[in-house]
Amino acid sequence: MSSVSPEVSKRRTFAIISHPDAGKTTITEKVLLFGNAIQRAGTVKGRGSNQHAKSDWMEMEKERGISVTTSVMQFPFNDCLVNLLDTPGHEDFSEDTYRTLTAVDSCLMVIDAAKGVEDRTRKLMEVTRLRDTPIVTFMNKLDREVRDPMEVMDEVENELKIACAPITWPIGCGKGFKGVYHIHREETILYQSGLGHTIQEVRVIKGLDNPELDVAIGDDLAAQLRDELELVLGASNEFDHELFLQGKLTPVFFGTALGNFGVDHFLDGLTEWAPSPLPRQSEEREVVADEENFSGFVFKIQANMDPKHRDRIAFMRIVSGKYSQGMKMNHVRLGKTVSISDAVTFMAGDRERAADAYAGDIIGLHNHGTIQIGDTFTQGEKLKFSGIPNFAPELFRRIRLRDPLKQKQLLKGLVQLSEEGAVQVFRPLINNDLIVGAVGVLQFDVVVARLKSEYNVDAIYESVNVTTARWVSGKDSKKYEEFKRKCEPNLALDGGDNLTYIAPSRVNLNLSMERHPDITFHQTREH
Ligand code: G4P
């Protein structure tokens, strides 16, 4: 126990993983409703109106209706303080999502019960596996005709290799959706349609054999429910907290986000069972959340969240200890001590000045270009948190100015955007080209839009003969120098001045790798 333990143990920090359209935005909205962060659902993202999710901030996102960036929402629930980290829905921004998943301690997996396990959920589950993140599951859209719940659970077990333990069980679906039976509380919670914008007054019937149940949902459905539950309880796993914490078993809840039904059930589960802030590995040692001394790492940098504040915010996950206003921190990479007087928190979706924040919380630091993704901050100890990846881009374009006088602005903008992890920029050693590398196509559009709005430069793309890139390093300095000389036409510096091999084709890359066995070609670069 330390002085920060009571606060730290209240924290639950999670993200939602799902396939686009499964209902992540709708769920976020309802979660905020329960967290008293908003009064009425529909204020987060009024589809068909001019309102948009608080988590969407760029004009482009609004136009395209996709969430390009990550933001953070903090709210109280039960006796906990919950941090929900939003992740971009579009797969072109998966790098952002991967890094955000390094900053959470658990995930909510949302599945469209009509569709079952979809592609992007599969990929994101692979990422959560890297750290065995505990997963809570919500089967959504029970107000529609969905697939047999048992079948969908089987699919989750087989495809995602995680055992399912139903905590609630649905009664009917579509127009005939009556609610759920809560297996742990041994009660039926009845659903009423059309009340999705508010927190519903629900009717609860205690006990499975209660004759009231027959009256409420009809004799036939009640009998069917009793039969089904006997089968389900026999055939499925019981909830096991240890296995859940190891990421091997997921508690499963059913409901409808649109109808705001079932959301509080999984929030109860999440606050009760999900871990409080977990330790993080640094290159030097493991750092535990309730250590007295403050430490944290930056997983995301974002610009221009609020048009009124044209600044850039570095999102830091606090790993241990406590942040208080005005405290001094050591920016480890630069070896500098900085005084942080105006960090922001994300209570209720609005930015507020953070008075205190604890391990598990996310704070935003105003960044004037000195902070990079992956940077560690401490109270003096030399630590470097590990495992925050940069992926080699797969798409490349040369970027060119319409107005050649703004070359300096363009370079500045590109380097800053690459520090944020939005894209990567490469400057070939042999010419003055600027090559932008991205993991997904949409990132290119974002860069041009942001260059225009934030740096006032008008840029266009041209195709370039690069198909893949690898960061290079070599232990033997003589061989490294020889490699640099021979391969100069294919070498470039990235935004952080790291040497990169940019290859016109896979064949070319493979040949170079064969020819220079003493050089290491890295597919990811740790920040
Ligand atoms: P996403 O962020 O995961 O992409 O999903 P989002 O919440 O935007 O939901 C995708 C669509 O699914 C939306 O419909 C939303 O209204 C709908 N939806 C979400 N949860 C439920 C649910 O429990 N039941 C039903 N029936 N639908 C649900 P849309 O057509 O894109 O928007 P709208 O025109 O319906 O507003």
Structural overview:
The protein is of the alpha+beta class. The protein folds into three domains: 6-63 and 105-273, Rossmann fold (3-Layer(aba) Sandwich), CATH 3.40.50; 280-378, P-loop containing nucleotide triphosphate hydrolases (Rossmann fold); 392-526, 2-Layer Sandwich (Alpha-Beta Plaits). Helix content is 26%, strand content 30%. The strands form eight sheets. The protein has an eight-stranded antiparallel beta sheet with strand order 28-25-27-26-30-31-29-32. Strand 19 and strand 20 form a beta hairpin. The longest helix is centred in the middle third of the chain and has 17 residues, at 219-235. The chain is globular. It starts with a helix and ends with a strand. Bound molecules: guanosine-5',3'-tetraphosphate. Guanosine-5',3'-tetraphosphate (G4P) is lined by residues 18, 20-26, 47, 89, 140-141, 143-144, 256-259.
